[in-house]
Specification:
Structural class: mainly alpha
Largest sheet: none
Helix content: 55-70%
Strand content: under 5%
Radius of gyration: 21 Å
Number of strands: 0
Order of helices and strands: HHHHHHHH
């Protein structure tokens, strides 16, 4: 059927196919850039003296006034926004039962951005005065917003892992195996993280283990969702 100007009407199936090719690419571009920004912590060992104690948390480095604090805050904000873009591009309808972990990953990304918007006002990991004031609720609201954002960040990706593990537990794929290994690692690592936070000991060594695990979770989700977009055109076009 020709248009009013005599030109042929666009082929909707071709347009949809192009969109399905663009979306996985966009998801990966946003995702990789987001993870590079998220993992700014790997640069800390390159600057001796930046982390003053093995008990110090990486969020303590973002307290305003610390060296590179503003850059770190911006990296957290940018990371969350880019990961939101990645999961929006990947969609939430390409995987049966995958909407719940998609939504939880969005919570993870959004909370990460909020952590950059509301950095801590003092270093509770190594400053006893700051820690005491924090526990007695004598610090500005910003400190507690940062704490809530951190809790939501960890909770979001942990819930996403639980949902992903449950829906793939009877599968024998590589994706299912990754979720299985991550779930087992989380079962062991979370009690250690809890002790590190409660005792204010060795947080600088424990947190990177979770950052690596979170990165693996994001990559696995993107691999799974990008594959679903490419292999299920009809479903992917509805996402």
């Amino acid at each position: 059927m020709a248009s009013a100007q005599g030109a042929p009407a666009p082929d909707l199936s071709v347009t949809a196919s192009r969109r399905l090719l663009i979306r996985p690419v966009a998801a990966w571009v946003f995702g990789i850039l987001g993870l590079l920004s998220y993992n700014w912590w790997v640069l800390v060992p390159l600057r001796p003296g930046l982390m003053r104690s093995p008990n110090e948390l990486f969020s303590d480095l973002e307290v305003t006034g610390q060296p590179f604090a503003t850059a770190m805050q911006h990296a957290d904000l940018l990371s969350g926004l880019l990961l939101i873009g990645a999961f929006l591009a990947a969609g939430n309808k390409g995987i049966p039962g995958g909407r719940r972990d998609w939504f939880a990953m969005m919570v993870f990304a959004g909370a990460g951005s909020l952590g950059g918007v509301f950095p801590q006002v003092c270093a509770d990991g190594i400053n006893a005065v700051c820690r005491n004031m924090e526990w007695s609720f004598r610090l500005p609201l910003q400190q507690y917003l940062h704490i809530v954002a951190g809790i939501l960040e960890f909770a979001g990706i942990t819930v996403a892992l639980q949902f992903a593990f449950q829906r793939t537990r009877n599968q024998k794929t590589r994706i299912a195996n990754v979720y299985r290994y991550l779930a087992r690692a989380a079962f062991v690592a979370y009690p250690i993280l809890g002790l590190a936070y409660l005792l204010n000991r060795l947080g600088g060594f424990v947190e990177p283990v979770f950052f690596v695990g979170f990165t693996a979770m994001v990559l696995t989700q993107l691999v799974e969702r990008a594959h679903a977009l490419r292999s299920s055109p009809v479903k992917g076009s509805e996402a």
